[in-house]
Structures are given as C-alpha cells and as structure tokens.
Design brief:
Distance between the termini: 35 Å
Shape: globular
Order of helices and strands: EEEHEHEEEHEEEEHEHEEEHEEE
Strand content: 35-45%
Structural class: alpha+beta
Helix content: 10-25%
Number of helices: 6
CATH superfamily of the largest domain: 2,3-Dihydroxybiphenyl 1,2-Dioxygenase, domain 1
Radius of gyration: 19 Å
CATH architecture of the largest domain: Roll
Largest sheet: 8 strands, mixed
Strand order of the largest sheet: 4-5-6-3-15-18-17-16
Oligomer: single chain
Length: about 325
C-alpha cells in the first residue's frame, strides 16, 4: 500500500532502499552573467576555473526539460570540491526575488570552509559583499553538536546565498583541521530549506540510500542573527556519502517553512540549483523514481562530459522541489 506524504513524492509502508548513490558531485548554480560570476568566485572565494563549455541540442533539451536552450557551464574547484556555474544564453530565466528568505523552500546554499573566520570576513568586506547574517556568529555551547562553530551568510552577485563556516578542533571532517596557508579550503556541504525532515529522509535516505550522519536543534540569538530570521529554531540533519560534500536539511520549526518552491520553476531561473549524485543502475532507479517523484527530464539521457567521458543522467525533484541530477558513468 502506498501513501502520499507531499505532492510529487509517494512512499510505501514497507520501504526498501533501492538507491545506489556512490558519491555527491558538483553543486550547480544558475547565474545571469557567467563572466561576472567566475570573477567573483575566483577573486573573492579562491575557486579555480577547470573547464568552460557550451551545450545545446535535443539531448540537453530533454535533460533540462526546456526546448531551444543553449547554455554555458564553467566548472570551478576549491580544495577537493567542485561547483558548476551555468549561464543560459538563450532568453528566459527569472531573477531571485528580492524578498526571498532563508526559510523559503527555494533556499539553497553551499558552505565554504575557512581556516580563519576573521581573515575571511575581512577579505569579503574588501569586495563589499551583501550580508545576510548581521556578522559572523559563534554557535553556543548549548547547541552541543555545533558548539564553537563560526558561520556567516552572504550573497553572490545574483543574490544566491553562500555561507562561510569555520570548524574548531573536534568539529567537522578531519581534513578541515589540516595546517595550511589558504583561507578558503573547500565546500563542506550544500544546505536546502525543507518543510518536513521525515519526508526528506524518505527521499534521500530510503529511496537514494544516502546515510544520515547527524542532527542538531539550533536556536538562540546567534542562530537568529546567522540566518537573519527573528525567532529562528531549526532542526538540522546532515547526510553524507563516501565521497563529496554533505547534504544538509534546514527545517525551520519556528517560524516554520516560508514560501513554497515555485511549481513553474525552469532550469534557467536563477533560484534553480542542481545537486549531482553519482549512482549505479540508473535505468532501474529512473523507473522506480518515475512512479514516486516528479522527473524533470524526458528520460534517461546519454551525454558526454568535458573530458569526453560518456554518462547517463536525469533530473528529479525532491519532496520540496530541489533539483537532483542523477548520473551514472559508462
């Protein structure tokens, strides 16, 4: 017997993990002007450009669910992690609303790890970045899993949310504690605002097989000033695979979820982010997810990447509308 938890996600009373996610790949960010964005991520945040390509044709139209597109993708790397900046050269694509809030379900960010928060914050101020947080915040001892972590939210040129995060000794992955001269170290996770932790776990953990690694309940004046949401109280859940950045759920218990993810979202809208997951047996996964979730792609699409590697892929929505690109290398 099946039961409907949220529009677009049907789960079963007897749930069996059938996903074969092996790692988390690049986080994709849709941008308005690729040259402006590359300059920002390079100069302000220390990313390095590793590829720059343009794509068009029926295979990409079927993958993205948009007819007549032509887009440019620049892949950027920081430490071990990568992001993909995508600029749709054909007309269309809406800007992020100025009134978007961190508890709106279209919210997503990447958390960039820094070795020294004070130095990183001063560096950002040289470039006049727009703040989201009032200032860097240190999470208190009362929030035991996150005690001593320092964080700061800000915007990129397209109003995308980004986070700087500093892990004190004993927090975060061991690699973030390695000595070095760089201020900006890599991407720890991508975070998404969600409406219901159980529903999201059924999608990411039960259907896709990504392991839950931890959780915390964050509240207090520091958390309110970090998110810039008065009275914010969050249930935060962290999931990880064997490789790649984590995926973090942000469920706002107070004041509750904000505006829903727009149902008419297209891949060229600037609030459209795309998280890549590497999987096995993608055709079986497509068949099963097609019966339970909203699929953006027309089918499993065969493509080649910038290195000439062949792969199959499709894009699916999670329970709250966030886009996930599932990819199997051939």
């Amino acid at each position: 017997m099946k039961r409907l938890l949220l529009p677009g996600l049907i789960v079963f009373n007897s749930l069996i993990t059938f996903g074969q996610v092996t790692s988390v790949g690049p986080t994709g960010i849709t941008v308005k002007d690729i040259n402006v964005s590359v300059k920002f991520y390079t100069e302000v945040l220390g990313f390095t450009k590793i590829s720059d390509e343009e794509f068009s044709g029926s295979a990409y139209e079927q993958l993205k669910g948009i007819f007549g597109l032509h887009f440019r993708v620049v892949k950027m790397q920081l430490g071990d992690e990568q992001i993909e900046l995508t600029d749709y050269l054909t007309s269309g694509g809406r800007s992020i609303p100025e009134d978007q809030r961190p508890n709106d379900l279209s919210f997503q960010h990447i958390a960039i790890v820094v070795s020294d928060m004070d130095k990183a914050y001063l560096h950002l101020r040289k470039y006049n970045v727009e703040f989201v947080s009032t200032a860097p915040q240190t999470l208190p001892a009362a929030i035991v899993p996150a005690a001593g972590i320092r964080a700061f939210y800000f915007h990129d040129p397209d109003n995308h949310n980004l986070e700087l995060i500093y892990f004190p000794k004993g927090k975060g992955q061991p690699k973030w504690q390695q000595p070095g001269a760089n201020i900006f170290l890599g991407v720890d996770h991508t975070a998404i605002s969600i409406s219901n932790t159980e529903n999201s776990l059924q999608f990411y953990q039960t259907l896709l097989g990504i392991e839950r690694k931890g959780e915390s309940f964050n509240y207090g004046i520091e958390q309110e000033h970090l998110n810039n949401v008065e009275g914010a109280s969050l249930h935060i859940t962290v999931l990880r695979t064997a490789a790649g950045p984590g995926i973090e759920f942000l469920q706002y218990l107070k004041p509750g979820p904000g505006k829903p993810y727009p149902v008419n979202t297209r891949a060229d809208d600037l609030w459209f982010w795309q998280t890549t997951l590497y999987v096995q047996d993608i055709k079986t996964l497509y068949k099963k997810l097609s019966a339970n979730c909203i699929i953006i792609s027309k089918d499993v699409i065969s493509l080649k990447d910038h290195e000439g590697k062949s792969f199959n892929a499709f894009i699916v929505k999670d329970p709250d509308g966030h886009a996930i690109l599932l990819r199997e290398d051939i």
